[in-house]
Amino acid sequence: MWKNDRPTTEILHNPIRTYWWWEYQWPMDAALPTDWTEKTRRSYTPADSDREMEYCTYRHESGDLRVKVAPASLDGDDHPGYALTTTSYPGLEFAETTQVRTVLTFDRCERIARRFMDLFSARYDGPGSLEDALEYASERTRDHQ
């Protein structure tokens, strides 16, 4: 069963690469709801740090909502970690950006973003329901301590 400290069976075969049991993680697109697309994904290292930071945005197929996972400092917060923000009607003059939640790690923030997108998709039923779906998903992904 073991060959060169690796099992002979795979956990997951992805067309891009094979994940072994000790490095297993869900592929990032596996949990993305069908009515959402990833628009941006970047990794960078700020000039004043050696830590690599990540950033990604998702857009709903209607074009009415954008979800962003980015370092909290990009939005002017003095909070460490990553912020989940939403922008309704992005690109229009009446666009509204709201911070949903801030957490310490990118992976956790992205998991929360995917939960948000699932909840939003379950409630969204066309342009007239945007605010209700946004409130529904935001309320259920906020930190309730």
From TrEMBL:
Domain of life assignment: Archaea
The protein's name: Uncharacterized protein
Protein species of origin: Natronobacterium texcoconense
Lineage of origin: Archaea, Methanobacteriati, Methanobacteriota, Stenosarchaea group, Halobacteria
